[in-house]
Amino acid sequence: xxxxxLIIKHHKSKIKMSAIWKxxxxxxxxxxxxxxxxxxxxxxxxxxxxxxxxxxxIEMIEDGEFYVLKQTTTIRNVELRxxxxxEFIEETPDGRKTRTVITFESxxxxxxxxxxxxxxxxVREFYEDELVMTLTIDDVKCKRYYRRIT
Length: 150
Description:
disordered N terminus
């Protein structure tokens, strides 16, 4: 009988985001399946209705070796300050605290993985005039489309 030992090393991504998102803000234009996503996440009725009524504006800023994802609404503003590929504690808009890792999967694609509780994946794809977010939990997928405003 042969025995094998497999050693897997985690390596940091060398991919850098392109400058396509720099100096731009994106405003929510439409959502598909957002309430179902919030329901699968366990968000209560009141917070679901509140979340569906707000129109967020998103921008990403580079700050030295950190990136800052800003989401601004009339209700609450959220900032995620992160280094790519490094775990941090995130407080979500619905009040959960979770370990999170954000990676650059291509020059325009940012993937955010929330690791605690039910795993959530949020993919942000930046384009010249649009940002497309795909949020996934269990088998529920939501898409949110943002239009460039600056």
